[in-house]
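Query form — protein LysR family transcriptional regulator

QUESTION: What is the three-dimensional structure of this chain?
INPUT:
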Amino acid sequence: MQHSLPPLSALRAFEATARLGSVTAAADELSVTHGAVSRQLKSLDEHFGVALFTKSGRGLVLTHHGERLQSGLGEAFAKLRDSCTLLKHEVEEAPFTLACPGSLLARWLIPRLDRLNQALPELKLQVVVSDAEQPGQPETSVTLAFFEPPWPEEGELITLMPEEICAVASPRLACACQNADPATLFANKLLYTASRPQAWPQWAAAQKLNGSTLETALKKGQGFAHLYYLMEAAVAGLGVAIAPRLLVEDDLNSGRLVAPWGSIETPARLCLWLPKHTNARRSEALVDWLLRELKG
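ANSWER: The structure tokens for LysR family transcriptional regulator are given below.
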């Protein structure tokens, strides 16, 4: 015959009362009312059919049956507390791994990495380059990337900001265009990355520019494997590049590049993706920091 265990909350109330020798002290430790502890103790008496405490003056003392129960529960709850403490320590001390595409890592996160580590030293942050701008790397705590629909079905996706792309050029080349008319760009060599072939068409469509003219200009343009090379080509005056505004903002602020033709919003979003195993409390601090940094 199997015997059901009494509720864990009742056993916890009994263990605290027996250890502390007071219902009031047990209630304080458990952050509940005196009456709640008393009701839990009464439910145990009814469950076992015997009294576990007896009154002694203003206090309580264990009965013989109570001592039998306390001897086992004291050790069990001590082991439970130790296990929980060890697990919490292990989780909080484990490195927090942030995966990030190389272009976003090099052009936005690394210049801010020292500020991030100073603001959140408890994260013990480790940064790795993601293989693609999609989640799924093993042993990764979170992934920071630009995501486009369809959104990942698993885990949690936290949107940080919409993606904007802009056409950028060296100040000298931009001056040679004479005005901010987007149509003037097609007279220049168009630069792009192989990983974002849709960027120029998205930009041209938003500017209501002729698609066939763009297609002709792209055939005369030049592609680059990485955004870093693309930006250096633009700074050198080799043509007009298309890139996420977030990744060229520092260059625009410093005057290395200019973007007189404006920006357009794409369907993509800068997001932080959290797999199911990620510690939510630790990731919340990172989300708050990212939002502050992006607004700044």
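ADDITIONAL NOTE: DSSP finds twelve helices and ten strands in the chain.
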